[in-house]
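Weekly structure sync, notes
Attendees: PL (lead), two postdocs, one rotation student
Agenda item 3: pending single-chain targets
PL asked that the sequence for the first pending target be pasted directly into the notes so everyone works from the same version. It is reproduced below exactly as submitted, 509 residues in total.
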Amino acid sequence: MVDFVIEHVLKPGGYRHMTATDGREGLRKVSQQRPDLILLDFHMPRMNGAQLVQQLNQHGLDIPVILMTSQGSEDIAIEVFRLGVKDYVRKPFYPEQMLEAIEYALTETRLRREKEELTQRVLRANQELHHRLQQLRTLYDVGKHVTSVTNMDELLPRIVDAATRITDSEEGQLSLFEDRRLVCRAEKNQTLLRSRACRRDLNDPIASYITRKRQALVLGPDQLRRFDNAPISAAYAPLIINDTMLGVMSVANYTTNSRQLDKGDRELLGALGDYAAIAIQNSRNYEALQASKQQVQDTFERFVPPSVVKHALTSPNGLEVGGQRQEISILFADIRGYTAWSERLRPEQVMETLNHYLNLAAGVIIGWEGTLDKYMGDGLMAIFNAPHRHEDHIHRAAEAALAMMRAAQEVNLQHGYQLSYSIGVNVGEAVVGYIGSSDALNYTAIGDTVNLTKRLQEFAAPGQILVGEEVVQRLNDLAVARPLGKIKVKGREQPIIAYELLEVKSLVR
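Predicted structure, written out during the meeting:
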């Protein structure tokens, strides 16, 4: 019977087979080989067909069984069906009958196997999808954080950390073109917990190849074997923005138990490279903007008070013609004895000395956080409490006036000059803001308080500081002043009460 089935059924049907001479041998081979189908005769030595089926069930071997029985043994067929036999064939039979039974029994096996394979594929696909989704989320988060950083030494290590993180790589590096050569600017290796900034020439033929081809690339052991100290897998991505090659980024795995980088990692690295190129360009633009802004500010401050420049740069919407009424302290200063003295000197020496005194005065004004409004020949005007507010602006103006006098005396002792300031200080309301046109603006103060301060300065003798009555009243016991009584000043019908300021007690600021 065995020979008949092999020669006339299995071989013509293209099936591979193995045989057993009794039931126990059959059970052993089934346990070891796990065939797709078992053909049994009911009558077998050492273990009959029903007993073998029972053993299969006990061992959890879910394999379809076709039982061959003799004519008139339907009761046996019913018994083995209860045990789980898939089909039975009564002897004698034609090969076609057995083939039909085999095909029927194997249909379920094929379907079950296909189901299992499909289930495994779905599970693997879900795992891969979950992994890719996590990578994309990481890439998105990294993109947001990376593009918000403007400092290059902080930005580049973050990019390398992101690259090794999304590709689960052991090492990474980022290089940029500097003077037409690749320079490694950030790196991470197995001994570092985080990436670090660096600056060294990069000697990597693969990186150079990537910059020429301008395409991302993933490499395996076979491709890397010919390089010295090569990793077992690596991925590279160019950094390109607006068709300009900025540099190249790479990740690599070295240890034997590390994962092989694949085309998915190449695509992720390429996407991160796009983020990185934008972030690097933004950082460079920001640095250039800051440098340009600083250059503009430095140049601007040579012609405009630093406090006004700062106000203009931080409040661009406030650069409009017009102003607002507010209380300010005003200081006017003029170099006395300058005209007669300048007649005896060369123009270059006169200019140098004039700049010396005016710069000295300007330094004092800025030191007390006042606003240098303008130079007027050999004099100047300063404002306190605008644009930056100070509750102690009167005290600052008075202290600045006394400091200017002391500085002038020190210069005279050092250089043998006989020059001094005459200074006027007053407090009151004025309109403060920008005057002029949209093409040319000047930050200044306008009002009667300003005019009166100028008259006080004009009335003051060399080395003398004249202040208005309200300045003395507001400073109270902090000021030491000598009353001058009523004085007649130019442009006013009524006389005003003036004081000579001698001393101001310090405030703890």
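Discussion points:
- The radius of gyration is 48 Å.
- The mean pLDDT is 85.
Action: rotation student to compare against the earlier draft before next sync.
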